[in-house]
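Problem 12. The chain below contains 559 residues. Write out its predicted structure in token notation.
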Amino acid sequence: MRALIVGGICAALFVMPAAARILVVNANGYTLNAKGEVKRFDRLQIGDDGRIEATYERGDKLPKGLKLDKQIEAGGKTLIPGLIDSHANIMAIGLNALNADLSSAGTLEAALDKVRAEAVRDKHSAWIEGAGWNPLRLGLGRLPTAADLDRAITDRPVALTRSDGEALWVNSRALAIAGINRGVSDPAGGHIERDGTGQPTGLLTGTAMDLIRRHVPPPHPRKAEAALARALSILASAGITMAHDDGTSPEAWTLYRRFGDERRLTIRIYAMADGPQALASIAPVKPTPWLYDDRLVMRAVTFTSDGALGTRGAWLLQPYSDAPASRGVGLIDDTRLRNLLSRALMDGFQPVVRAVGDGANRQLLDAYQELAATYGTERRWRIEHVQVVDPTDLPRLADYGIHLSMQPADAIADSAVALQRLGEGRLAGVDAWNSLLRADARLSFGSGAPVASPDPFFGIHAAVTRQDRTDQPVGGWRPEEALSFPQALAAYTTGAARAAFAEDKVGTLEKGKWADFILLDRDPFTVPAPELWRVKVLTTFVGGQVVFSESRSARASAP
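Solution.
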């Protein structure tokens, strides 16, 4: 054994060469297999190519003549596979971290002060952007308006995203640039808030937000670079070793490629193009191969079939309980939906459709059923969100190899909204994770970040307890739909890996797969369920290399 080092984790890790054969010892190791069965081990052997060579259970002897470059002492810490976020917007995570953060603003004045400070800090951006405001926390007893924002800044447009991502608050300058006035009608699936005279007030929801966003220029290249670096750091610190990027733009793809060329992609990115136009710019003929040692690929395209439940944009089979005149809006008609799906499948891409309401999900199921006769059942079609499903459709979601990408923490946060919009009698198919698993559906979990925190243990906690982090609601929201910890872990590992055609690369700690794993401050298999959200990541490895360490706040480059 050459240059054997036994010592503290961080002391060993940060002197590690780019290529080394490593043995992690004294780990409380867990991994799952494809069946969801738990396998224990206490040593992990990593080859100099960054792939796993072997795991050893307690009492197993090492092969004779095994030569190692480094030995890492895990000190009994829990070691599990790196977690995969199956629904995140990577660039938005970074940009939100760089823009005005209104999440702590407890009054209107506090929010306006943050906007003023952002305008002073960022003198060069054409627009002032921010996120995180909560109308209840502002304590106004009403919704905020453009007139409120005008008190902070009038010479530049301002666009602030609500904490749940379902609304934009803008100033008068932004409304003028977008041409939003009394004569502009609400777009399908969107709403422009108006005063008693019909004048827009500065609040837009659903697809109406696009009326503003189409005028917001892309960030300056230096800001975009800083945003991606920040996003990669945030995700690695949360134990995310791979993220499915929901709605990759051509500009983001170019930046990902540059980071890959410079060996700065510290997590793996499964890129999903933001619609056919973006796909035509990025990969016009066929999916890309996996690039940069399996750190980046483009082989999926996303579409949006309806809006959010909170804004009553989700397309329902029956009217909203609190708005009997509305069933929401389907954004893609049947013919166009089939054409979009067929085009993606013909070119070898995975179709990824955002569908929230039971009407949108049924339309999509009908389309998949029809197209399966031509394209088969192993194309791994995906549905994002899948929030409301008619109970009669639950068994159908297990058909045709469909992958269901869901966000458990966001679901629990939305439980009161679901009750208000649907009524008690229509909740049976809402975020029905356990029912879906019993029907043999394929689940993958994610955060929806930056709308929600990317911390996967927040999502795992929500999936297991059906509660938020204040233990509400008491007893859990529809607790019969709760999952076990191994089931929730599978949705963040094996399920999410398969949803990205990456089950031969990541998701479990088995021979031949990449050594993507995390060390934790406690054992989530034994911690009481209400404490799962408190689990913290100590160190994150991708391809056998450290990309985050809590004690050293590491920001390592990819090998």
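Discussion. The longest strand covers residues 240-248. Students who got a different answer should revisit the alignment rule from Section 12.3.
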